[in-house]
Write a structure and sequence with these properties.
single chain, mainly alpha, disordered C terminus
Length: about 450
């Protein structure tokens, strides 16, 4: 069922279920947009010619997944899309629903189709469904029995199975801009007939919402109820009603990993100010500082490496300091480590070499240790040739057995470890170049097979 203009768009058959929230419902539900022109934000999806506006205005809604952080309008848009098509709307929560609820939705869709009416099945938090539950939608989406709209706060590439993902367009919703949140705050204040907010209070509430419309509306509702109409709402009123205002975060979700990624990349990019900013954002969002400390240790190994081995020691020391002092004092040690790593010379040479060598080991299988490298602690081992021909490096010119081979037969030498030439690795690169030159000359100070004057130590 198509609609040619916005005015007629919402004259279609009503969505199943009540459209107006009851008086006692949360403010966010009472102010949920009922028309496209009431929606705030998402210009990339709802601006002229953009995909969801086109779907709303045409009345043709394909299956889709709405991906974005909380409070960005996913449920609202699903309801408006269903209404645009005059569809029967079935709402499922993946937190509570199971396969039986999916079967019930299918039965409703079949009954509606018999009456000539389409169905939209909206699944909130679709990433909470397991593979079997997600697969239960596939045949009905393919047959066109209903249009599927899923909402998720998690990356659908990781959380939605590929078969369902291939049958649904993914639309990314962004956190609301500060200007949009300020508009919403005024809309909420007017609806509550509340006194005005001071400029400082508005700014703090918008910052607290951090792009989340629902969070803003819940905060406004709580503040107004606690304020009881005594003059303008100021920062003191916010503190009394809400306590410490903290920015939006999550545990193990996209925001969590995005913050970690930003910190790691800022350190790798040698930007100490950005690195400090993202560390502060992580801790402000409630990330466990011990987890941040573990990630800092990883950065020291992965991105600084042997260009400055002191970085790893400093990272470990910072983790230990935090364990002793806790928050907030111990956080300064983490900040110190982050700054040091950001300004230190960078090298991922060991990281790259380790990955390359592991790939070779997995590909090559179990190759025997060469005879001259085998341990020879007993006469029997020696009689079998273990250790025969081994050249004891300390007895060689420059303490190096030029031309000696330490890899198994059939394994081509790298080089896998290639020093970066930055920091300490510049000196390491010079040393390796000298050793390679000796290998090329291949002029050992004694004949292979001679026994060393000092027996080699046992392994370990």
């Amino acid at each position: 069922m198509a609609a040619s203009a916005q005015e007629s768009l919402f004259d279609a058959a009503p969505v199943a279920g009540p459209q107006a929230a009851p008086a006692g419902a949360p403010l966010a539900e009472r102010l949920r947009p009922q028309h496209l022109d009431e929606v705030i934000g998402q210009p990339d999806l709802l601006g002229p010619g953009r995909p969801l506006r086109v779907a709303l205005e045409s009345g043709h809604v394909p299956s889709m997944i709405l991906w974005g952080p909380p409070g960005t309008g996913k449920t609202t848009l699903a309801r408006l899309l269903a209404r645009a098509t005059g569809a029967h709307l079935v709402v499922l929560s993946a937190v509570l629903a199971g396969v039986k609820d999916i079967r019930d939705a299918v039965e409703q869709a079949e009954a509606q189709r018999a009456r000539g009416r389409p169905t939209v099945v909206f699944v909130d938090e679709v990433h909470r469904f397991n593979k079997a539950q997600q697969d239960a939608f596939l045949p009905h989406v393919e047959s066109g029995l209903f249009t599927f709209i899923g909402a998720t706060t998690e990356n659908p590439a990781f959380e939605v199975n590929s078969a369902l993902l291939s049958r649904a367009a993914v639309h990314v919703l962004q956190p609301l801009a500060d200007a949009d949140l300020a508009t919403l705050l005024e809309r909420a204040r007017a609806a509550l007939q509340a006194p005005p907010f001071t400029e400082a209070a508005r700014e703090r509430l918008v910052a607290h919402a951090d792009g989340d419309a629902r969070r803003l509306l819940n905060a406004v509702d709580a503040v107004v109820q606690a304020h009881a109409g005594h003059g303008p709402v100021d920062e003191a009123a916010l503190e009394r009603a809400l306590g410490r205002l903290q920015r939006r975060g999550d545990k193990g979700g996209d925001i969590f990993y995005d913050l970690i990624s930003a910190l790691h990349k800022s350190v790798r990019g040698s930007d100490p100010d950005a690195a400090l900013y993202w560390l502060a954002r992580m801790l402000d969002a409630g990330v466990d500082p011990r987890y941040a400390a573990r990630r800092i240790v990883r950065m020291a190994s992965e991105d600084i490496g042997l260009a400055d081995p002191r970085g790893l020691r400093l990272a470990l020391d910072a983790a230990e300091v935090y364990e002793r002092l806790g928050s907030p004092e111990g956080e300064l040690a983490l900040a110190e480590a982050v700054v040091y790593l950001a300004v230190a010379p960078k090298s991922n040479a060991v990281y790259a070499a380790w990955g390359a060598v592991r790939a070779v080991v997995q590909r090559e299988g179990t190759r025997p240790v060469p005879m001259h490298l085998r341990n020879a602690p007993t006469k029997l081992a020696k009689s079998l040739g273990h250790g025969a021909g081994y050249r004891y490096a300390h007895d060689e010119a420059q303490g190096y057995a030029a031309g000696e081979r330490y890899l198994p037969d059939g394994v081509a030498p790298g080089p896998w470890y290639v020093p970066s030439g930055r920091g300490l690795e510049a000196r390491i690169a010079e040393r390796l170049a000298q050793l390679r030159a000796l290998d090329a000359a291949d002029t050992p100070s004694r004949a292979p097979g001679d026994e060393p004057s000092v027996p080699p130590p046992a392994p370990g």
